[in-house]
Amino acid sequence: MQSIVVIGNGQLGHMLRQAGELLGIDIFLVNCNSNDFENIPLSDSIIISEIEHWPKTSLTEILRNHISFVNRNSFHRIVDRLKQKKMLDLLKINTVPWHYLSNSEDWINIFDMLGESVVIKSRLGGYNGHGQYYINPQLIETLPNSCYGTCIVEKNICFLGEVSLIGARNKDGKTVFYPLTNNLHIQGILRISSTFPKVAEKYQKQAENMLSTIMEYLNYIGVMTMECFITPKGLLINELAPRVHNSGHWTQNGASISQFELHLRSVLNLSLPKPIIFGYSVMINLLGILINFEWLKHPTLHLHWYNKQVINGRKVGHLNITDFDKCRLKLVLSSLISEFPKEYYKAIKWAISNL
Fold first, then answer.
1. What pTM, to 2 d.p., does this model score?
2. Distance from C-alpha of 78 to C-alpha of 124, rounded to nearest angstrom
3. Distance linking the first and last C-alpha atoms of the chain
4. pLDDT (tens digit per residue) in 268-326
5. How many CB atoms lie within 10 A of CB 100?
6. Taking the CB of the first residue and of the last residue of the chain, which one, N or C, has fewer CB atoms within 10 A?
7. Distance between CA atoms of 177 and 275, rounded to whole angstroms?
8. In Å, what is the CA distance from 156 to each residue of 114, 147, 229?
């Protein structure tokens, strides 16, 4: 069995390594701030990434251009939002209306095209609400000059819901998908995900067709995540991520095959059956809060702690709650309200009301 080198050593990399241990696969996590070549078996490994952006060093340059980097020819077309948007337009796949912000003169047409409420996003990075600005005509002067040439502008969408689709494709072109996941973001950061209510079948089919088209066009191998807005006219793609994703953490306990194992199976061309879903699942992100072992009194709750320093707003872990009994799951969520800071009240109530 080939070993796998993962660019990045964050929580996603550690969860990939956990999945690899169960399959007997050696996973080597690369600290991108290091130039330690000695402990990385490049000649015998497949290279994947758990992050989109990393510092430019002699080691990361070798990894990025190495023939064993599975998606080296397509990675850059996803992580750069300008290239990603151009690709979606080329494929005639619905995405949030957008415009490249090359200089200040572009504002003459942008508001006519996109409306008076827009979102500015960095071409590179800018996840979890960072590198994003909500702008109207009165706020143009507050925009940093550094945004010009490095950002795109998107229409501020009024949506009915936010969902994500996590799918995988192997070297033979076979694809499998999880059900669409309902997501709630607060201040640009994913707070909670839920597999129920089950998203309408028409949206599931539309999403699978969209993501299949993208992965086939790129000859992409592995797990890819597609975040979408539900609108009266159907789905609009918000973001693509060429990796396992926060909104898919529920699969660790709510599916027969987790997104992490599915990613490894795909890049190693192992069997790729459609995962079986176990009942109802809710994932709660733990953001800047201390660990509380009282959570473990609930038999359907699983704690995943990242062993990071607890800093305000930082993702330090997540909870997965999975149950085939919807009423019992509601009771667990209701009891958690009193065990969380008040800023979680809205998110947990959202999950309860939608079950």
1. 0.95
2. 10
3. 42
4. 999 999 999 999 999 999 999 999 999 999 999 999 999 999 999 999 999 999 999 99
5. 15
6. N
7. 8
8. 8, 18, 11
Query: Which string of DSSP letters, residue by residue, matches 241-282?
Result: ESS--GGGTTHHHHBSS-HHHHHHHHHHT---PPPPB-SEEE
Residue 244 CA to residue 232 CA, distance in Å, equals 28
Nearby residues of 318 by Cβ (< 8 Å), 6 or more positions away: 246, 249, 283, 284, 285, 286, 304
Q: What are phi and psi of 158, to 5 degrees?
A: -90, 110
The pair phi, psi for residue 291, each rounded to 5°, is -65, 145
Q: Is 313 left (phi over 0), alpha (psi -120 to 50) or beta?
A: left
- Residue 214: C-alpha distances to residues 3, 121, 235 (Å): 27, 22, 15
8 Å CB contact between 286 and 339: no
Neighbouring C-beta atoms of residue 55, cutoff 10 Å = 9
Structure tokens that stand for 150 in this block = 């490095």
Strands of 3-7's sheet, edge to edge? Answer: 27-30, 3-7, 45-49
Which residues on adjacent β-strands are paired with residue 3?
45
| pLDDT mean over 211-234 | 97
Dihedral sign computed on CA atoms, order 84, 85, 89, 94 = positive
What gap in Å lies between CA 248 and CA 265, rounded to an integer? 16
Domains of the chain, start order: 3-69 (3.40.50.20), 97-155 (3.30.1490.20), 161-354 (3.30.470.20)
* Pair 190, 243: CB distance under 8 Å: no
Number of Cβ atoms within 10 Å of the Cβ of 133 = 17
